[in-house]
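4.2 Preliminary Data

To establish feasibility before requesting continued support, the project team ran the inverse folding procedure on a target of 566 residues. The structure was first converted into the token representation described in Section 3, and no sequence information of any kind was made available to the design step. The complete token record follows.
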């Protein structure tokens, strides 16, 4: 919220979320599973017609009593409460997932009987779960860190809040026994989709720690909330899945020392009275963390970071409010079940119910659909100059791509496409490139995904990409081709993180390239090796950042002799 009204500019909090593999790329594509399994409905994003979150909330809450489930950043709800205070009385309850009150992160702990004395704990025992930023902020959880002040506004709205924090989700990891039971119970399309999503998550997880570090976060909130509601919204929060307790808490948005106006805090800087009537010396009046790599947050000697932006703090002062908090997941009442948590039974039962089941998947929606690759035969045709197109997937780049595909083969022979993930589209938009090639009958052209960060910038930074708006006129429109992308035929090719024969880390390190997305460097090497004996220069047309080309030349010094840039 403090970042202003524009969707362009600093990305103070969202820097903690990786933009590539194991981050937004895999999440936006659901590891490639979304396009291979889900049907394509008629509804889609259309510029100027897409209702905003605020419009949907106003219409829904205005119609009558409403309960909110908040399982991500609290920005939407906080903005709604701040701009529509007259509708607060229609919100009956808010169930919120996030934060850690008294939690101890089990991730990154050394085994108690570790034979390797060099094992060094990482996040072990931390309150939070910022695996990308725990060295600067070991207290925050991703949902709270994404917009700390929004979390504060929701907690202090005066509306009854039930919090499902890391305290309770850490007690319900996805166990091997649950995973095996899930694999055997897939009677509906949605159960199949959820299991395959979980399977891909496991196969791309960090090392072999999936069963000890992947938890039932958002789904567990849904189960707890529904159970409480079925028990008549009991004041004490009785439910079958979690033990509950009332605690006085607040969301911390800044760091000590409090009350020192150093220019970092937009709530205080240049103001005689703090914005939103915050206390001048409270937990919102200190230094504001600028990002995961903020030097202020690091401790000399490499100890735990000192920043607490996004922390859920338990206290008894005037800044704390009473919230119902889930503490521990209840054990399975069936002592003969291999699954150790009661929620696991309900989760599998609900997903496999045929009532309200999904209507179809991709194959039943399109019974005549075949995953056919269209590869033209140019054996007896004269080919023109070999060309590689390096694009960043903005709308103009897609027009250029179609133009190149329509150009006479004897003039231009398009050999490959390099995609930049740090321009005017997110990396997952590579699927649109595949669809256009499929539409034009050119499934023979390889596509390589390049860097998702500018050269010389940190993996979690936003030094240059912050200039690209997130919403209309920016990433939203580019990623969807202004809503037209869903009208394209669906290519059998897509970004994928399918597993290979390697037990863990296969999509990242496996040698079976057919089961993972090729890199820009791999595509370049394949094309250049096949052309060098017979051709001279290879023309590279660039219409985006030069990151891919610079990276290739840094690795392949001989490329300087054969590349002709236009």
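Position-by-position output of the design step:
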């Amino acid at each position: 919220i403090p970042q202003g009204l524009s969707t362009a500019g600093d990305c103070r909090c969202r820097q903690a979320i990786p933009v590539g593999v194991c981050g937004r790329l895999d999440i936006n594509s659901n590891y490639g599973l979304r396009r291979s399994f889900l049907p394509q409905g008629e509804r889609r994003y259309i510029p100027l017609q897409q209702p905003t979150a605020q419009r949907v909330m106003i219409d829904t809450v205005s119609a009558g009593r409403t309960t909110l489930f908040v399982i991500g950043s609290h920005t939407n709800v906080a903005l709604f409460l701040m701009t529509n205070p007259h509708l607060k009385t229609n919100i009956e309850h808010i169930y919120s997932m996030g934060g850690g009150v008294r939690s101890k992160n089990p991730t990154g702990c050394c085994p108690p009987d570790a034979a390797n004395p060099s094992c060094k704990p990482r996040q072990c025992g931390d309150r939070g779960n910022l695996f990308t930023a725990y060295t600067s902020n070991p207290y925050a959880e991703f949902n709270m860190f994404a917009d700390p002040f929004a979390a504060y506004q929701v907690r202090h709205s005066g509306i009854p809040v039930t919090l499902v924090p890391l305290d309770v989700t850490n007690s319900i990891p996805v166990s091997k026994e649950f995973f095996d039971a899930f694999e055997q119970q897939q009677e509906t399309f949605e159960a199949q989709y959820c299991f395959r999503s979980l399977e891909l998550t496991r196969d791309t997880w960090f090392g072999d720690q999936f069963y000890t570090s992947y938890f039932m976060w958002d789904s567990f909130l849904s189960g707890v909330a529904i159970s409480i509601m079925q028990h008549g919204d009991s004041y004490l929060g009785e439910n079958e899945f979690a033990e509950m307790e009332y605690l006085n808490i607040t969301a911390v948005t800044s760091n000590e020392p409090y009350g020192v106006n150093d220019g970092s805090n937009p709530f205080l800087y240049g103001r005689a009275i703090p914005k939103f009537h915050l206390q001048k010396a409270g937990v919102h009046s200190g230094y504001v963390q600028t990002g995961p790599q903020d030097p202020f947050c690091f401790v000399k000697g490499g100890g735990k970071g000192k920043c607490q932006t996004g922390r859920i703090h338990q206290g008894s002062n005037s800044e704390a409010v009473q919230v119902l908090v889930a503490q521990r997941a209840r054990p399975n009442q069936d002592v003969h079940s291999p699954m150790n948590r009661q929620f696991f039974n309900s989760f599998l039962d609900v997903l496999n119910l045929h009532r309200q089941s999904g209507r179809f998947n991709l194959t039943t929606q399109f019974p005549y659909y075949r995953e056919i690759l269209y590869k033209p035969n140019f054996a007896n045709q004269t080919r023109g100059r070999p060309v590689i197109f390096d694009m960043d997937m903005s709308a103009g780049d897609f027009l250029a791509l179609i133009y190149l595909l329509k150009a006479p083969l004897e003039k231009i022979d398009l050999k490959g496409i390099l995609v930049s993930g740090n321009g005017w589209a997110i990396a997952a938009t590579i699927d649109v490139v595949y669809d256009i090639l499929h539409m034009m009958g050119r499934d023979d052209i390889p596509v390589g995904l390049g860097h998702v960060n500018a050269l010389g910038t940190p993996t979690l930074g936003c030094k240059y990409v912050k200039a690209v708006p997130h919403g209309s006129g920016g990433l939203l429109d580019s990623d969807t081709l202004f809503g037209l992308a869903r009208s394209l035929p669906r290519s059998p090719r897509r970004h994928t993180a399918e597993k290979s024969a390697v037990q863990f880390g296969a999509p990242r390190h496996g040698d079976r390239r057919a089961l993972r997305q090729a890199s820009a460097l791999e595509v370049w090497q394949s094309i250049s090796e096949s052309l060098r004996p017979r051709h001279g220069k290879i023309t590279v047309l660039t219409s985006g950042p030069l990151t891919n080309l610079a990276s290739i030349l840094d690795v392949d010094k001989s490329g300087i002799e054969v590349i002709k840039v236009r």
